[in-house]
TrEMBL record:
This is DNA polymerase III delta. Gene3D superfamilies: 1.20.272.10. It comes from the Bacteria. GO terms for biological process: DNA-templated DNA replication. GO terms for molecular function: DNA binding; DNA-directed DNA polymerase activity. Signal peptide: none annotated. The lineage of its organism: Bacteria, Pseudomonadati, Thermodesulfobacteriota, Desulfovibrionia, Desulfovibrionales. GO terms for cellular component: DNA polymerase III complex. InterPro entries: DNA_polIII_delta. Keywords: DNA replication, DNA-directed DNA polymerase, Nucleotidyltransferase, Transferase.
Length: 330
C-alpha cells in the first residue's frame, strides 16, 4: 500500500482543498474516478455505497466529502466500520472547510475521538493548512511566473505578494487577469502591480489617506498593525507599497498622469494628495520610509517602533507643512 487508506484535509480555503486532493490523486497516476458528496446535504445510500462497494466495471474511486464539518455528530461513528481496513478500490477524502480558531482547525463534535482519526494523525493522513498566508505568496508568484517565463522588475513581486487576496481562487483569478494585460510583454512592472488592488490586504495609500484626513495617529497605527501588517514579516512589503504610492504621486504631480493606469476615482484622490504634498512633501515620505527601513535593518528600532516613528512623521507632514511646499511642475 503506497497511498493512505483515507485522507482528512482541514483548510478554510476550498480551492486549496480541491488542489490538494487533485495533487494526491495525480501522485498515484490515473485510474481514480472522483465521486463528490457534500456534508451539508443528506448523505443517503449513494454515499455509503460509494464508500464501501467496489464496482466490477470501473476502476478505483476517489470519494470526496466536501464541507464534512457540517455532518451531524452521529455521522462520524458510522464511518468506523468502513475505514477499519484498507480498501484498494476506494480512497475516501474528508474535507473539513470550517474556519480555524487561534489553536487551529475546529474539528466536528464526535470526530477527534474516533480511532480512525487518530490513525490519520499518526500516519500523516491528515493535511492541515490555515489557507494562504503572506509567506506563501512569494513561492506562489515564483511558480506562476516561472511556468509562464515571466520576470518582475525590482519590487514588483513584493508589491504583488502584499496586494493579492488571501484566497487561492481569487488570487489565481487576479493573476489570470494580470496575465491578459501583459500581451507580448514578459516583464511585470509596478504599473502592472497597481492593477491588483481593492482587497482586504495592505493598502499604502489608505494609510496615507487616513493620516491626511486628520485621524488620530495612534488609531491609524493600531489599524495598520492589527489588520494589515499581520506580523513583523510584513513590515518591509508594507514600506515597499508606501514607497510605490509615493512614486506614483510623484509621477502624477510631474505631469505624467497619462502614463499611470488607475481607475478614475482612484486617480482623482491621488492627484489631490500629490497637489497637496508637492515635491517637498513627497520627498519627506521617501525619507520617512527609508529611515524606518534603515532603523529596522540596523537594529536601532524594532519593526513596531519603526512603524510608530513612520506614522508620527507622516502625521506631522499632513499636519500643515505639506500645504506650503512647491509643486513638482513649478
Amino acid at each position: 500500500m503506497n497511498r493512505p487508506g483515507f485522507s482528512f484535509l482541514a483548510c478554510p480555503d476550498p480551492e486549496i482543498i480541491r488542489d490538494r486532493v487533485d495533487r494526491l490523486l495525480a501522485e498515484q497516476g490515473s485510474g481514480f474516478d472522483k465521486a463528490v458528496f457534500w456534508g451539508d446535504e443528506e448523505l443517503g445510500d449513494p454515499f455509503w455505497s460509494a464508500l464501501t462497494v467496489a464496482s466490477l466495471f470501473s476502476g478505483r474511486r476517489a470519494l470526496v466529502l466536501r464541507r464534512a464539518e457540517a455532518c451531524p455528530a452521529e455521522f462520524w461513528p458510522k464511518l468506523a466500520a468502513a475505514l477499519r481496513g484498507f480498501n484498494d478500490a476506494v480512497w475516501p477524502f474528508f474535507c473539513l472547510e470550517g474556519a480555524f480558531d487561534r489553536k487551529g482547525p475546529k474539528y466536528p463534535k464526535g470526530l477527534a475521538t474516533q480511532p480512525y482519526f487518530k490513525v490519520a494523525e499518526k500516519r500523516g493522513w491528515l493535511f492541515v493548512s490555515p489557507g494562504l498566508t503572506r509567506r506563501d505568496m512569494g513561492p506562489l508568484l515564483a511558480d506562476w511566473a516561472g511556468g509562464r517565463k515571466l520576470a518582475f522588475e525590482p519590487g514588483v513581486a513584493e508589491a504583488l505578494a502584499a496586494a493579492l487576496p488571501l484566497d487561492l481562487a481569487r488570487a489565481d483569478n487576479e493573476l489570470a487577469k494580470l496575465e491578459l494585460t501583459l500581451g507580448d510583454r514578459s516583464v511585470l512592472t509596478m504599473d502592472d502591480a497597481a492593477l491588483v488592488g481593492g482587497h482586504e490586504g495592505m493598502d499604502g495609500f489608505a494609510f496615507l489617506d487616513a493620516l491626511a484626513s486628520g485621524r488620530d495617529p495612534a488609531a491609524v497605527w493600531r489599524e495598520i498593525g492589527e489588520k494589515q501588517l499581520a506580523g513583523e514579516d510584513m513590515v518591509f512589503p508594507f514600506l515597499g507599497l508606501l514607497l510605490y504610492e509615493a512614486r506614483i504621486m510623484w509621477r502624477i504631480a510631474a505631469g505624467e498622469a497619462g502614463d499611470v493606469r488607475l481607475p478614475s476615482f482612484v486617480m482623482q484622490k491621488k492627484q489631490a494628495m500629490a497637489r497637496r504634498l508637492g515635491a517637498a512633501g513627497l520627498t519627506r515620505i521617501f525619507e520617512a520610509a527609508f529611515a524606518a527601513e534603515s532603523g529596522i535593518k540596523s537594529g536601532a528600532r524594532r519593526p513596531d517602533q519603526a512603524m510608530e516613528y513612520l506614522t508620527a512623521e507622516l502625521f506631522r507632514l499632513f499636519g500643515g507643512n505639506a500645504r506650503q511646499t512647491r509643486p513638482l511642475s513649478s
